């Protein structure tokens, strides 16, 4: 088994403290509460506990709170970013991940307060600093949103 194959077999997790070490996002833009599974740089499952106290529910929509789809896709991107930076280990020091594109986004069911969103991301490909992923958000096992997206890893100093 090659080093790359061995790394992809390694399972990991990240509590909120570790997620915050990997990502620069903070309240109210941190969309991931923890990561329950990371497989090298290949795939991960993040968790977002959706609370009625989320600031976006004040305006989206009063009396009928629905989590904005763009924030569900952001949760996918954050899960993927944490996966990549964690998988790169010390090679990720001083790096930051920027969203590049979103393709084939579909929203199948509203996400509402009380839902626990399982954010599944899987690497499609990686060429140099560009990483492409497929993401699915699930509530109670049912897909509520999905998208393909790309991100670029760059040095924070040049950001």
Element pattern in H and E: HEHEEHEEEE
Q: What percentage of the residues does DSSP assign to strands (E)?
A: 35-45%
- Supply Rg: 15 Å
State the low-pLDDT regions, or none.
Answer: none
Q: Count the domains.
A: 1
Per CATH, the class reads Alpha Beta
Tally of DSSP helical segments:
3
Report the average pLDDT across residues: 93
Kindly state the number of beta strands. Answer: 7
Kindly describe this structure:
21% of the residues lie in helices and 42% in strands. The chain has a single domain, classed as Hotdog Thioesterase (Thiol Ester Dehydrase, Chain A), CATH 3.10.129. It has a 7-stranded antiparallel β-sheet. The protein is globular. With 159 residues, it is of the alpha+beta class.
Concise account of the structure shown:
The protein contains three helices and seven strands, in the order αβαββαββββ.
């Amino acid at each position: 088994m090659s080093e790359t194959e061995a790394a992809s077999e390694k399972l990991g997790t990240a509590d909120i403290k570790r997620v915050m070490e990997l990502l620069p996002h903070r309240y109210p833009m941190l969309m991931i509460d923890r990561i329950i599974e990371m497989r090298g740089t290949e795939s991960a499952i993040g968790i977002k506990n959706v609370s009625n106290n989320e600031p976006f529910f004040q305006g989206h929509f009063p009396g009928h709170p629905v989590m904005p789809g763009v924030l569900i896709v952001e949760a996918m991107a954050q899960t993927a970013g944490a996966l990549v930076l964690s998988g790169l280990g010390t090679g990720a020091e001083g790096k930051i991940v920027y969203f590049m594109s979103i393709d084939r986004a579909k929203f199948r069911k509203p996400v509402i307060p009380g839902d626990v969103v399982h954010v599944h991301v899987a690497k499609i490909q990686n060429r140099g600093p560009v990483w492409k992923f497929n993401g699915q958000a699930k509530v109670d096992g049912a897909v509520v949103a999905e998208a393909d997206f790309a991100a670029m890893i760059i040095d924070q100093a040049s950001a």
